[in-house]
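2024-03-11 09:14:02 DEBUG pipeline.ingest accepted 1 chain
2024-03-11 09:14:02 DEBUG pipeline.ingest length=368
2024-03-11 09:14:03 DEBUG pipeline.predict start
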Amino acid sequence: MRKREIKNVEWSIVAISIILCIIGLVALFSATQEAEYDEFNKQCIWFVISIISMIIVMMIDYDTITKVSPIFYGLFVLLLFAVLFTKPINGAKSWFDIGFFSLQPGEFAKIFVILFLAQTITKIQSRNKREINKPTKLLILLAIIGVPILLIIKQPDFGTAAAFISATILMLITAGIDKKYIIGTIMIVVVSVPLIYNFILPEHAKKRIDIFLNPESDPRGSGYNIIQSKLAVGAGGLTGMGLLKGNQTQLGFLYPKTTDFIFAVISEEMGFIIAGTIIILYVYFVVKCLYIAKTAKDDIGALIASGITGIFLFHMIENIGMVMGLLPITGVPLPFISYGGSSLITNFICIGLLANISSKRQKTIFVK
């Protein structure tokens, strides 16, 4: 990477991701004391590996990475199929257990699905930007994204599937999809939601929605986690109860506190000031990601940045929303903060791609 490219890098997104990681590590330290800090120690190792992965991705031109994306897309589709034959963990077949590390192919698939989709859209629009609005071309794109989504739903992991959909929507908007498709999709969703709920969703998914609407209907069963999470968030007050002192966190009422409900741990023990700061950091982070998409040197860079932004935006809104009882629980991790090697490495690879894209832009064009 040349000096000019290093100067062009949007270093703020790198800084924010590291700050969020540090906050997450502090929360994990507090949340894992009864387990002799096992997950905290592992997360420290994943943090180092993630930083190295980010630097490597930053050093390789994103055009080169995109060219090999079809190969990795095919590989991860195979892995998403193979993982369906593994032993369920918490009711989902989403991980390959390889000793000290549980590989979640759905996390890594996000990267290569976005890259392959961006490459395909760019090829379709190479002669005419309006080509993307032809039904046959849209069907090709929907097939590319549909295969991994269907396999992920089969696991079942509706949260990750929704993250893929969020990325696809932002990428199609960036590509200039006709408004009639957007309006049509909204109308289809509105009409199909009750049908999906009544005839397609499995019972456990229906139960999550019912509990979201009325958690007090089963306070000792399915509503237990969200009730405890809301109690933890409310108990933190302005400055929190202090590290290692949160009632819900330390007495075992909050579960799973290192992954899905890590924001509840932070709210309880560090308070509204830190929790609010995290939300502000995420908002600024997403705005910067969109800026990278807007100022990318080419269409494929803009599409990749938009897709990654969609992933981060969905995870941020969904995780914080479900912890506060504003959205249904889906098991979506909070980027850079929740425990998980696959998630953390994937997030930092995405940061590497965003930094890579921003390094190639011509900032002087936007100064005048």
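2024-03-11 09:14:41 DEBUG pipeline.report Strands lie at 96-98, 101-103.
2024-03-11 09:14:41 DEBUG pipeline.predict end
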